Amino acid sequence: xxxxxxxxxxxxxxxxxxxxxxxxxxxxxxxxxxxxxxxxxxxxxxxxxxxxxxxxxxxxxxxxxxxxxxxxxxxxxxxxxxxxxxxxxxxxxxxxxxxxxxxxxxxxxxxxxxxxxxxxxxxxxxxxxxxxxxxxxxxxxxxxxxxxxxxxxxxxxxxxxxxxxxxxxxxxxxxxxxxxxxxxxxxxxxxxxxxxxxxxxxxxxxxxxxxxxxxxxxxxxxxxxxxxxxxxxxxxxxxxxxxxxxxxxxxxxxxxxxxxxxxxxxxxxxxxxxxxxxxxxxxxxxxxxxxxxxxxxxxxxxxxxxxxxxxxxxxxxxxxxxxxxxxxxxxxxxxxxxxxxxxxxxxxxxxxxxxxxxxxxxxxxxxxxxxxxxxxxxxxxxxxxxxxxxxxxxxxxxxxxxx
Amino acid sequence: xxxxxxxxxxxxxxxxxxxxxxxxxxxxxxxxxxxxxxxxxxxxxxxxxxxxxxxxxxxxxxxxxxxxxxxxxxxxxxxxxxxxxxxxxxxxxxxxxxxxxxxxxxxxxxxxxxxxxxxxxxxxxxxxxxxxxxxxxxxxxxxxxxxxxxxxxxxxxxxxxxxxxxxxxxxxxxxxxxxxxxxxxxxxxxxxxxxxxxxxxxxxxxxxxxxxxxxxxxxxxxxxxxxxxxxxxxxxxxxxxxxxxxxxxxxxxxxxxxxxxxxxxxxxxxxxxxxxxxxxxxxxxxxxxxxxxxxxxxxxxxxxxxxxxxxxxxxxxxxxxxxxxx
Lengths: 403, 326
Description:
The structure holds two protein chains of two kinds. Chain A is α+β, with helices and mostly antiparallel strands.
């Protein structure tokens, strides 16, 4: 920190001038929330950069300790609010690992389907906002329009659009509603054309390519040193994707490629995300085509509450229902780390249980937090416009950075 | 005496029309942009939301005037006036119709018609950039300062190429008088022999008016709002007016220099002028809906290393052609 302070106040030996210190944020159009970036500028050139976080700290990790295992899911929604479903995913997998239960195949497939849908939704927001950062207005509206279809699908089955809490410990909130598969297929058929439209609008635009190519490159070694995961790491040429390396929830059943690029610059990150959307489409199509019939939650009433109709008929069901909703699921004491591949990288949960109905500790590894730390490296000696491009390419969500 | 009255009347009419055009233009831009982006755009006030600009104007009048304590008050207050005045004056010499005969006199449609019309426009629009620089500096805000500096760099890089692009037309027409230039295009618009000059002019005119993809001085994603970050209410509106009127002026000049001014069959010449200017205005909105912003250093490089040499070449070629033709 002391070293950084001297950089900020340092007099340039050549000119004898101090750099201009400027605050980008916490209220600024392109910091995607409340990120504050302190910059020392020489003209428009960045001499030093320091991301300052904590403006959206909500104490989610601590609050989880006061809620039952199932209630805490609602808080995980609110971290990466652009892709709440993948947040739920890592958490419920962790709790299920502690419980030692495995959900039926149908549930696993539905989970995969929704995780990929929300990956596309998240990437669409990223595409729209980062195009906006570059000054292109319209792509934002085009991507939001398609994201709307995904939110409709999520609303259809979970009842909520932004914070669905659709995944529950031991299952889902409910099975797929009637008519869902037709609506999903309509989206799957319509979306690729739009993807081509985005390519036509951006990738064939010399200004866009000039802004992105060679901007803020990161080597594979650097990326690994900073703990980068997700599309950022893959853009630097490291084919690390938890869906392939540590398959969870039946990802091994699906045929898809891990998208990598080698350049490691903003343009490579853009391409990785664009192609990932295509891969996600592939996965969703396979999931809906091969969706197994059968149960969509774990059997028995110890983990997943009994059906509402059953409560009226069965005394035992009523007791289980009451126990589950007052005390929560009894999770055996122990600790577990469970991670899934979110749209922004590895979203991991370290869960500690003391055997009660509430978590003893929930520690979240938010990918945005780790990815953001490399910002000073990305923008060193670049110009101000590249800072915006770099922040956009990291694809941060401050709710996840600060938690 | 009659001349003075005439000039006054013409001045009032032109200024009123320009300000009205600014109002309508803000509505048109929002509506067209909305169509590009699958939105309805303004649709609450009046038919198709056409009264929106009146409401916006009224809102701005009643906004609280905020002057930053650290600002240089005099310069801060003057800067938007400089921009707006320059923008309106520059339009004064553009003939938007053929001369008419009234009270036994021949009255030209422009307010003043110096025989060096083009030079006048360039002189005045160059003054307009002072409004941006001074406003950016006087706000004593770092973002404003960066915006002001960017506009300086941009205008310097692009005004030269613009001037050279126009030189080709001057050589071909053999006059700097706008009415003469229009008269010379009676048979063939200058866009045909001067296509290179036209392309350069169109690029530089977008840069000159700080519009996408050259809207660096007010790049909202980098500089919040650039030079007018600290401006509120009517003073902010003045900057906006200056920008839109500048758009109209450069479009009018493009029409005059390359598209034969008010020449056109069947319709009245004033309508032809309007149609041609409107086409350019639509082009501005189209660009805004489609393109991302250029990077500051690339913009400079493009101006100096591409546009300027090409414009020079174009001037040289035209000069040789004119010399040989004689």
